From TrEMBL:
CDD domains: TM_PBP2
Pfam family, one: BPD_transp_1
Stretches that traverse the bilayer: 9-30, 66-90, 102-124, 136-156, 177-199, 233-256
SUPFAM superfamilies: MetI-like
GO cellular component: plasma membrane
Protein's name in the database: Multiple sugar transport system permease protein
Compartment(s) where it occurs, according to its Swiss-Prot or TrEMBL record: Cell membrane
Organism in which the protein naturally occurs: Lihuaxuella thermophila
Keyword field: Cell membrane, Membrane, Sugar transport, Transmembrane, Transmembrane helix, Transport
Domain ABC transmembrane type-1: 67-256
Gene Ontology biological-process entries: transmembrane transport
């Protein structure tokens, strides 16, 4: 009997938490459908909801340019991280070479350095290369991250060595073992990394705002920030743009959620 009540309590807490996390999204959606005069009506139901805010964003601003910039940068950086982080993580986990442990400690050390510390040196370097306000500057410096390397290394360490030993007996090279044995088994970690990297770059504001000096190079977060003026902020228009931003994130998460949950649950067990 007590197990039944514990189960009821568990589902009550979970459902209640889900409702609480859903309220801000529903409130943002509701506000995005309001007219500007109705923005001050916080708790009073409005009589008229409209999609004019969505139309206003699409027609009055280079919204599709910002959207394509965000898609290109997020996809390019995510693919780069999947490639380089996976190769580096596998090398640190499975290949014996001088300085391997030292290199891993360097990766851990980089993870502990706040990103704000390297902002000025990286910006000066990109400016000297002429990469400010270019796609090169938006993507190349961010094609690998220490967290992704650490994530992949920990996952590859959890794989049984017997699998690779059997593949070696069958005549596979080191690259063949990585491509045919380790990589297919790493789908959970790859899915987790894909979600982390895509969402992080899709929502990124700091670096795009520093590197973009013209409106045609804005990403969506930077472009939506232009809706704010010194004394006025049109939150209905801003939240309409935010609703547009959530669609790709929902699609990516729905595609990879199964592998994402499995990757979080199993990565680093060893």
């Amino acid at each position: 009997m007590w197990r039944r009540w514990i189960k009821i309590l568990y589902y009550t807490v979970v459902i209640g938490y889900a409702v609480l996390t859903l309220i801000p999204f529903l409130w943002s959606l509701y506000t995005s459908l309001k007219t500007t005069p109705d923005l001050d009506k916080m708790w009073v139901p409005v009589s008229h909801l409209t999609f004019e805010n969505y139309q206003y964003i699409v027609t009055k601003f280079p919204f599709f340019t910002w959207f394509l910039n965000s898609v290109f940068i997020a996809v390019a950086v995510t693919l780069g991280n999947l490639l380089f982080n996976t190769l580096c993580g596998y090398a640190l986990a499975r290949i014996q070479f001088p300085g391997r442990k030292l290199l891993f400690y360097v990766v851990l050390g980089v993870m502990m350095v706040p990103g704000q510390v390297v902002m000025i040196p990286v910006y000066i370097m990109l400016a000297e290369w002429g990469w400010i306000n270019t796609y090169w500057g938006f993507t190349i410096p961010f094609l690998t991250q220490s967290f992704g390397i650490f994530l992949m290394r920990q996952f590859f360490l959890s794989l049984p060595k017997e699998l690779e030993e059997a593949a070696t007996i069958d005549g596979l090279s080191r690259w063949g073992i990585f491509w045919r044995v380790a990589l297919p088994l790493a789908k959970p970690a790859l899915a987790a990394q894909t979600i982390f990297m895509f969402l992080g770059n899709w929502n990124s504001f700091m670096w795009p705002s520093l590197l973009a000096s013209s409106e045609d190079m804005y990403t969506l977060p930077v472009g939506l920030n232009s809706f704010h003026w010194q004394y006025v902020a049109y939150w209905n228009v801003d939240l309409a743009g935010t609703m547009f931003m959530t669609i790709p994130m929902l699609i990516v998460f729905l595609i990879f959620q199964k592998w994402f949950i499995k990757g979080i649950a199993t990565t680093g067990l060893k």
